[in-house]
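quick one
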Amino acid sequence: MFIGSLIEEFRKQGIFKSNMKRIVLIGYMGAGKTTLGRVLAKHLNLEFFDLDWYVENRYRMKIPQIFQEKGEEGFRQLERLMLHEVGEMEDVVISCGGGTPCFFDNMDYINQQAESVYLKAEPEVLKEHLLMGKSKRPLIEGKSPEELIAFIRESLQIREPFYAKAKHVVNIDVIHTKQQIDDYVNQIAEITSRS
Ligand code: S3P
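structure w/ shikimate-3-phosphate:
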């Protein structure tokens, strides 16, 4: 136990580095965290965890149901708990939920544990991805395209300071092709390999 915490302390202070890889993708809903995370993990031969799926599996409830039964506050508590579970795993790529870095001290925890990458996209790009996607997202459920873009603009402004704390940033444009996915994945693999 004592040796374990000493090693962890040394690691935090950068006294010695392990070859262990832990990459955390953050960014607004529709930025491409899950799509790119899955391919990135395969590319680097790491295990992939999507935090939303992890929450759903552990609690055997879909995200909209958690929002409905426990409210957003209840969801954020579970999300934080699960972040701390997957955040301890080694040799993984983790895709967070769009709101994960913006609550509690989650962003500091992510930076302490991992190479964080902010997938940064303009509101128009996020809107396009969200309209193409099939995932049910309680925060934007039932919004018209006009309401959606207004909501994205407003909430992205609030969230941006949290996202901006990431160690790396990758600018994301509308993703249509497999080639674009591969290009972004190569970019993320390259920037996270330097540290
Ligand atoms: C949320 C984003 C969702 C999910 C939940 C809340 C948010 O994840 O965690 O619906 O607050 O932005 P994705 O970013 O994967 O859609």
